[in-house]
Amino acid sequence: xxxxxxxxxxxxxxxxxxxxxxxxxxxxxxxxxxxxxxxxxxxxxxxxxxxxxxxxxxxxxxxxxxxxxxxxxxxxxxxxxxxxxxxxxxxxxxxxxxxxxxxxxxxxxxxxxxxxxxxxxxxxxxxxxxxxx
Length: 133
Description:
It is a single chain. With 133 residues, the protein is mainly alpha-helical. The protein has helices at 2-30, 35-50, 56-67, 77-82, 92-131. It is built from five helices and no strands. The protein has one domain (2-131). 77% of the residues lie in helices and 0% in strands.
């Protein structure tokens, strides 16, 4: 029973990670301090793709499936659950590029909002300083 729970936990964490990878930059528009977590998330995503790393969650899933007596997939999470389901198998790089564009647009929006906030704060501080003179 415990191994089956770990399989589900690994799958939920994988989905959560990928969802955060896609939208975390937009969440940082409202919670600016989270941009650092999103930068780390994106860096890990790029490293996994660029260096063909095995995600620790995939390792956990495989170990838990083995312990539960289930068949252990050769493919990783994305290859098994997303490729051919969310996007066609021959469009893996297209999906990666689209995701990268989504992330870059979210970061650009974050920077624009951050600059606007900073300008508003400076104007507010200048206005307060003038009031006290």
